[in-house]
Amino acid sequence: MRTTPLSFNFTDHVKTILKNKVWERKFSYGFPIGLEKTVSEDIDNCIITVYPIFYHGIVDEKRHQTIIKELCGTIPPYFDVNEYKRWPHRNGLVVIEIIYKSELQVIPTKKDLTKRPIPNWNMDFIEKKEHLFSLIEEVSALFLASLKLTFPTEEPVVSSRTVDSSGIYQISSGESSYFESISLNGFLHPLLIEPSKMAQIERNIEAIASVWHLNLWPVKRYLTAVDNLPLSMDNLLDLVYSLEGLFDKQASSDFIKILCVAKLCSSRTEAKTMREFFSVVYAIRNDIAHGERSYALFDKVKIGANETIAQMVYWQMKSVTAKMILFAFQKLLTSMKNGQRNLRFNIDDLYERIFDN
Known about the structure:
The protein is α+β, with helices and mostly antiparallel strands. Helices cover about 45% and strands about 15% of the residues. The chain is built from 12 helices and 7 strands. Helix 5 (about 125-150) packs across helix 7 (about 215-225). It is globular and about 70 Å long.
């Protein structure tokens, strides 16, 4: 069926990023101290399951409630995490499950959490809760980066669209469970996964995981650009910054444009169109960055002789940036033996495209 869940085994990838001391990276996706305290051998399994958007078949308006009850059991009402009961049945669902070999002894009881006027919080539990969640945030970022770079999906949106960004965080040990609401906006951005390319997805995830501990700043910026809905044209700036992060800070915008043309275009016509596209991208970028004007999603802009709406520039730039990041990953993976430790293009990459030797 088209709504059959997709499952990704992340156990080895989690162990890889912990072995490589991912918390020593210059930036984080959550709580790096929690990662440092995580012992790889304590993790028994890590599985990510994607329940696709519902768009075909018999309608089940309680689809999410059924799935969550099967996965989490009955959620006691005193946890006050009922947002999921309002989720539209059409929406997709992502479940990240990390299983540890040891039990947790400090989960608060109903009496602890309902004590008035102040709940009886155990600070050991609060620290452990944050510690455990840090790994979920890191795994989420790795998963989203791998998928969103593999499938830079386009889905035009309207600024008035509202999206429920709630989620559920559960800690369970033995007979005890704890629940709270969370928000991971990165899972709201449109993503079309092609199941026929699962082998390619797995290869990309494994490759990115192997270097995830490095300072991959362009990826961090790319995820910022595709981390929320409703979309704003300000997100275009993050895509530009992500692309520029693939080059030395002395690199000119003209060199960046030329290398993108060389990497992505196969004809003179494509090259001309790409140059016209970049002229508009940088014009919008400069207008916003320097306060000349703002852009709404449906403002009209011209690329060459063709008129389009502003958000289409964002969606196309998303694809361009993703492709260039993947090229940079290919270079990094083949150049690490020579000491390269980041995603970086230089003049040699242009020479490589022009000359045979």
